[in-house]
Model the fold of this input.
Amino acid sequence: MKIVMYNPMDNRIIKKLDLYRLCWRSFCVQAVWNFERMQNLGFLYMLAPVLNKLYPEKEKRIQSYKRHLEFFNTHPYFANVLVGIVARLEEEMAKGGEVKPEEISAVKMSMGGAFGGIGDSLFWGAWRPFTALVACVLVIIYLKKWEGAWLAPLIFLFLYNFLHFHTRIKGVLEGYEKKTKVVRLLEKMHYLRTIWSSHLIGLALVLLTIVVLLFRDWRAIERLYFLAFFLSVVLLNRWRISSAKLLYLLIGISCVGAYIF
Done:
């Protein structure tokens, strides 16, 4: 007897290919960012293929477009989770379910702010500086000369975009499947622990880099210069000098040092 596996996607209007289209369009979510309603046009652009499929009648399609022109703002990567959730809710409403337009708007507003905070902390505050640091440390430790320094940005892009692309693709699929229950999945990720761990590992990598540089074939005066430079940066940071000013200071010192030495 042949056993036929039930696929829940078979009875749905939206297919997996449609979800991948949403994911592809998500790269343009901030292309028409505006001060009044922020990412609303980008979100509508992401969702448009689904709305076109759910509402073939022109009037209903126009109404659905207008609903999603409201204010919307979240982290650009986590917008994929929300577009997956909204696509599922729109599908249920189009099929005559109990979902109301007001409920969809409430989900976008409430979860958009929460995902914005999570995404900013996870990607901008932890993952991006961590992967940049890992790339720089690998180049510094394994290369004795600077001819291969061009590898650093390539390593950074590979490491950073691994989690970035995974979040975009998985976000749409999980958002569509689990709807608002996707929040439980985020809780299981322990993202706060991940952020804290990345900071600790980053600090360890900085200390390792300092030790490696100090034990290279430098003259004693060069080691003193390096230690003085490092301690100066630490003190300036403790005095709450902004990162931008520190960056400009480092560039200036590097230019002067390159000219003198």
Remarks:
- Residues 219-261 form one domain.
- Residues 1-8 have pLDDT under 50 and may be disordered.
